[in-house]
Specification:
about 90 residues; globular; 5 strands; alpha+beta
């Protein structure tokens, strides 16, 4: 299941990280800016609730598992530390 969820993230969430114009420590994917954001100061990944709802309904995962998968995928794809997924 992890491979399938990662494939979903690759398809709908992955993109070059760009800095938010208003917040210097905040980055988001260029092509999918509404899916998640990353705070470089605290190493937090913030996600859109709709992304969580989609993953939970399609793949029958609970919130903690979703957060774990998103954090692991983010670390793998971007090579950045993740302290928390919020």
């Amino acid at each position: 299941m992890k491979k399938v969820v990662f494939k979903y993230f690759d398809t709908f969430c992955y993109g070059e990280l760009i800095e938010d114009e208003k917040h210097k420590n905040w980055f988001k994917p260029k092509n999918a800016s509404d899916t998640f954001g990353y705070d470089t100061e605290f190493e937090h990944v913030f996600f859109n609730g709709l992304l969580q709802d989609n993953i939970q309904s399609m793949f029958s995962v609970d919130r903690p598992e979703f957060k774990e998968l998103l954090g692991e995928w983010f670390k793998d794809r971007y090579g950045l530390a993740v302290w928390r997924v919020l």
